[in-house]
Design goal:
By secondary structure, this protein is mostly helical. The chain has one domain. The protein has helices at residues 2-12, 25-51, 58-76, 82-107. Helix 2 (25-51) packs antiparallel against helix 3 (58-76).
Amino acid sequence: MGVASILLTYFLAGEAEASDITVSESEALKSLFIAYGSAGFQVFAGVIGFCLAKKKSIITIILGVILFIPQLLQFMHLDNNIILIAINILLLVIPYYYLHSAYKNFKE
């Protein structure tokens, strides 16, 4: 999911017309930095989870919560657009499954 977010941000960053943009350059740069940073963190958390898959580690549970909470908050603040709601439900499944698997592995 993180790599897909990085690629999507990279390919869509220059697609908007200049007249459509109503934010300053510094705000746009900050948004790109946050988008790349969060996608990079998703990749990092996935690699750490993969490396610690056979060990009972609390780190994977903490990373699962850190991945799940922002996606849940984004889902809670959606408008009444059914397409965005459906997409965010699908995107919410991935961190939930990561967190659920990490917790189940920790309990066993």
